[in-house]
Every structure is written in C-alpha cells, then in structure tokens.
Amino acid sequence: MRKLILLIVAGLAVGALFGHLMMSVPGYWLIRVGDTSVQTSFWFGLVLLLGAFIVLHFALRLLTGIIRPVGRFRTWNSRARNRRAMKRTVHGLVALTEGRWKKAEKTLVRAADDSSTPLVNYLSAALAAHYQGHHEKSQEHLNQAQLTTDGADTAIGLMQAQLMIDRQQPEEALAILNRLDKQLTNHPQVLKLLKQVHLSVNDWEGLRRLIPRLAAQKLITQQEREQLEFKAYRELIIFEAKNPTNIERVRGLWADMPDYLRGNTELIVLYTEALLQANEEPIAERLLNHSLDNHWDARLVKRYGLLNVDAARQLAKAEKWLQERPNDPELLLACGRLSLRVGQWEKALEYFEASQRQRPNGEVCAELARLYASLGEHNKSQLYYRHSVDMLAKSLPSLPQPSDASDSKQSDQKAVKKTA
Fold this sequence. Notes:
The chain is an all-alpha fold. Helices cover 78% and strands 3% of the residues. The chain has 21 helices and two strands. The chain has helices at 2-24, 42-67, 69-97, 101-112, 118-131, 135-148, 153-166, 170-183, 188-200, 204-216, 222-241, 247-256, 265-277, 281-294, 298-305, 311-324, 329-341, 345-358, 362-374, 378-394, 402-419, and strands at 28-33, 36-41. The chain has a two-stranded antiparallel sheet with strand order 1-2. A hairpin with a 2-residue loop joins strand 1 and strand 2. InterPro entries: Heme_biosyn_assoc_TPR_pro, HemY_N, TPR-like_helical_dom_sf, TPR_rpt. Its main location: membrane. Keywords: Cell inner membrane, Cell membrane, Membrane, Porphyrin biosynthesis, TPR repeat, Transmembrane, Transmembrane helix. Residues 27-133 form the HemY N-terminal domain.
C-alpha cells in the first residue's frame, strides 16, 4: 500500500513538473515540404518523436526475427550438438578410465567434431589406440589434434614422448623431449620425462647435466639428487677409465664432482684405479694420502699398500698412521707389503704376523707363506699355505664332492650285503 501511494505521489510530482515546463518553455515545430507545412507545439512534437522511435525499434526487432529464423535454428542446433558431444566425451573418458579402450576410442573420435574441446578428445583417443597396440592409429589421432587446436604443441609433444617411452622407444622420446626443452626451458614435465629417458638408455652424461635443473625446480629430493649424482659419476668414471688415454676426461669428471662425492670411498677407489692405469701413480698416492688423512677406510689402506711410488716414504707415512691405529689389520698388511718393497724382510714378517693375529685372513697367510718360502723356512711356508687354502675353502659354496659320492656308494653296498 505504501509503495502504491509513493508511486502516485511520484507520478503527480512528475506531471506537475512536466506541466510547469510546458507553461514556462513555449515553442513550436514547423515542418515545410514544398507548399505544404505542418506546425505543432514543441512538447506535442517531442511526444510524437518519442512514440515514433519506440514504434520503429519494435518494428526492426520484429523484422529481424522474421528474416533470421534459419540462423537461430542453426545456433540452437549447434548448441544441442555440442551438448550431445560433451556427453559422449564424458562417456568416452569413463570408458578410457575403465580400460575399455576400443569403445573409448570410438566414442571420443565420434564426439570430437562437435566438441568444444577436440584436443581432449583426440589426445584421449590416441591414448586408447596406444593401449590397443594400434600405434599408427594413435599417431593419426595426435596429428588430428594438432590440426584442430592451435597452441597445443606442448601437450601433444608430451603425449608423444610418453607413448614412445611406453613403447620402449627411448631414443625417439629423447628427440621429442630435447626439442620441447629448447622451446620451453625448465618445463617440469619435460624435465621429469628427460630424467626417465636418460636412466632408461644409461645416458649418464645427459643425466649429470640434468640433475642441477631438476633440483632447482624442486623435482627431486636432496636424497634422490645425491643418489643420482653418485650413480652418474660412478658410471661415467668406469666407462672413461676403460681407455687409459681418456685420463683427462676422468680428471675433468673428478674436478666437476660435488665436494661431498670426493669423500666417497668407492669413487676414490675408481679414480685411483684410473690414475694407475694411466701410469700416474704419484697423483694416486697424493689422492690416497689426502683421503686417508680425512676419511679412514680399509679399502683405501689396502690400495695404498699396493702402490709403488716411493716405498720408503710410503712406509714412513703408513707407520705414522700405525701409531694412531696399532691394531688395524689392513694397515699392518699394507706396512708388511711396503716393508718388502724396501727389503726389510724381518719387519715385513712382523707386520704380516701381527695382521694375522688381529684378523686371520687368507691373503695374509699367502703373503706369509710366500715370504717364508723365500727365506728357506719351508715348513712354516707349507703351514701358512694350508691355512690360506683352508680359509679360502670356507668361503666356497657347499657343493657335492667325489668323496661324498664314494661314501654314499660304500654305504649302499653295505646295505645290500646286509639284506642278502
């Protein structure tokens, strides 16, 4: 009720204002065409113009509706087809998820032309064809996706690379990923797939260069980075060390290696062996000296005892370590071998026997047997040779021997005689 009263009051106010304007602003319209003229008041003419504008507006809308019924039908039909295509696309994606590859491919391709997202249809159809083993058909769907959608090179390339990896074609996948990597620097999915491909083809150099980028994008944990770096450098050193002429390449790898890996015993041993094969014993000695001063390891001590650089200096260094580790069996063995190099036979015997007391070992027994034989003490030599063979025999797997078969045969013969 209040709204009605307010509307009436507002209408009266507008009417009064309009009447006041008509009285205070006189004027007229004069239209002359040839000898004919029409004259009316200004306000009446203004009302006529407003009415004519409204009539013309509705007439044009009516005329447009009459002229364009086909266009409206087409718009309606297009929307209806798109809705049906979207339903088919959903059904196709559901079938793809459920593993019904043939139905998924057929449904997705049929819906692609009317779909508002043909890229999704063709990429999913390519995946369904791939799972059926129809690789050529899968590539056709990817080509069609390229034609229907601009700017989808990255998505299509990643799909191609993933399919190549699944087909055990890492070289083709690597070519695609390298191209994408040049176009899209540090793209996360490209980097992940590159890591997968480098590992599958044992491309350790490529992996070594990729690891810092993976870490910078936080695509690998610190633990995984360390594992990958260790594996890459280990395999590269082993490969390059096969040819002694590649020693500069091995040196370069060692120089590029992260600091924490230079303390890894396995890598130190590999690098030492590469240096020795290249006849660079002095460098190997310095490396082992530095490594043992900072990180004690039995494998490094053993390798140090086998070096032949300056035996007297090496023995002095080893005996200095022995003051700190008097009961280290590996160090005692190394001291014994270095003593042999400098011709100190009695000292060598003492070191070998001390090592044998700390930890009985077939290798130490063999050294003692050989040294006693050279000194003419053949009884002791034979004794240690037997000890060496016995210790070696203990490490052999348990397998049947002729003596076992003979014993079994004799037992069977005795059993037959008793039965008789």
